[in-house]
# Entry
Amino acid sequence: MVWYISLDYDTYEQAREEFVWDFPNDYNIARDILQKHDRDRPALYQAYPDGRRETYTFQKLDELSNQVAHALEERGVESGDRVAVVVSQKPANPLTHLACWKLGAISLPLSVLFGPDALQYRLADSESCVAVVDESMLDTVREIQDECPDLEHVVAVDAAGPLEDAEPFDALYEEQPKTVEIADTDEKTPAIIMYTSGSTGPPKGVLQTHGLWAGHCAAFCMYFERDVFDSVYWTPADWAWIGALGDLLFPAWHYGQPVVSYPMEGFDAETAFKLCEEFNVTNTFLPPTAIRMMMNIGNPTEKYDLSLEAICTGGEPLTPEILDWAAEQLEGVVVNELYGQTEANLLVTNCQEWFPVQAGSMGKPVPGHEVAIINSETGERLPDGEIGMIAVRRGDDPVIFQEYWNQPEKSEAARVDAADGGKPWHLTEDLGYRDEDGYFWFKARDDDVILTSGYRVGPGEVESTILNHPNVEQVAVVGVPNQIRGEIIKAFVQPVGGIAGDEDGLREEIQQLVKDQLAKYEYPREIEFVTDLPTTTTGKIQRRKLRDRSTE
# Structure
C-alpha cells in the first residue's frame, strides 16, 4: 500500500476540521520512506567539497541500510538498543538511522561539532552500545571512550589508513546480505533519542517514536505550499538536529523526493547558491542566519540559474526585510516561518496558498496538532491576545515525545491536565499569544535558551564548562541580539579574587575552553568581566537582568 500524509483540501479551515492521523498497523519509518517508491528513483544526490558526486536510488539506500542492519545485529544490537550517529551530511548518516529502525533499535543523532564533554555526556547517558562516527570525531571518541562503559563498538566513516580501535564503515557491511526482515513496530514504537540544549541543567534525552517523521509531513506540505512532489530538497542544517532531519530530509523521502547532501564546514552563501543551481533545488530549509548571509550576495538570479520555489525557516521571528528580499531578489520565492521544539516539532507554520503571512508571526497551527495558549498551572485556555504558555494537546499526536530518557519526574513536569477535561497538554516552556485571526506570536523563551545561527544553546552547559577554568569564580551566560546571527552568546564572568579579567589572556582562554569542550557555535563571542552577579534571594542568577543590561 502506498501511504502518504495528504493535505489535499481546498481551505485551511477544512484541513483543520477533517485531517486525522491514520497510520498503517505495522508502521516502520524505514519501510515508509524507502520501500513504497519507484526503486530506481534518485533519493540522495551526494556532493563533496572536492568535486565528487554520487547518486543513491531508493533501492540502493534500502539495500545498503539492510546490510548495515545485519552488521549492527552481528555486533549485538537488538530491539531497543541505542546506536549513536555522529556523522555530517554523508550517506552513512541516514543509512545508520535506517538500519537501526529496521532492527527496532533506537538511533541517536549527534553533532560532529561536539567537544569531548558534550559527546561523553550523551553517549553515557543514553548507554549507546555502538557509535558510528565521522573520521573527524575519532580522536574525541578515543578521549572519552573509557567514560562510556556501554560503548562496545566504534565505527569510523571515511577514516584513512588502518584502524586499531575502530572499524571502517564500508568494511562493516560490504559482505552482508542485501535483504533483512524488518522488526515488528508501529507508530508508537521508540525509534529516536534527540538531546535538548540543556538550558536548565544537563541536556535531556527526548525519546521519540516511529511516527515522528511522518508527523512532520502535514507541516512540510504547508510550508512548501502543498507542492511537495516533483521537487528537489536541500538544507545546510546539521543532520544531527530535528530541524534538518524532520523539517526536510525524512519528510522529503516520505514523498519519494530527492535530497541534496553536502558536508559544508561552515556556511558559505556562494556555495549555497551554487548547490541550488547545480541540482535544481526547488525547496529548502534555511536557518535565519543562512538567509541573512545569502542576502549579502547581490543579484543572485542574474548570477545563478535558480529553480527555487519555497524556503522554510525557523528559530526566530521572520523580519519584513527577509520577505522583501525573497520577493524582490529571488523573484517571488515564498518564505514560510515554522515553529516547534525537540519535544514537539512543527506545530505552527504558514501556507500562503491558504492564508497571508504576517511578518513576525509563527503562523497558524498545523492540521493534526491542537495548539493553544494556556495557563501552565491550571491548564486553562487563555483569551486571544493574552500571553501564556504555548502548549499542544497530547494523545495520538505523533510529534509529541514519549518521555525524557531516564528522567520520569521531568517528563511529568512537561505536562499539565487540561481544564476542559480533555487530553493533557504538553508544555513547550515558550511564551506567546494567539491573535483574533488565529495567528500565533512568540514572545519569550521561558527556559532562557539562546538561539544563535539557528542553533539552540542552553546557557547551563556553557556555564558549567566556563566554571572549569581555575580563574573563574562565577559566570552567567545569556543571548544578546545580533543582526546576522539572531543572537550571540555573551558571558558575564566573575573572576577569582585578585585576578584581573581583562589581563593575561583570560578572555581568549575561556573562549577556547568552550570551543574545545562543547561545540564551536557555543563559545561566548562577548565576555564581560564583573565583580558580582545579580541573584535572587535563593542564590539563583538573574539572567533576565543581565540580558536587559546588555540591550540598554
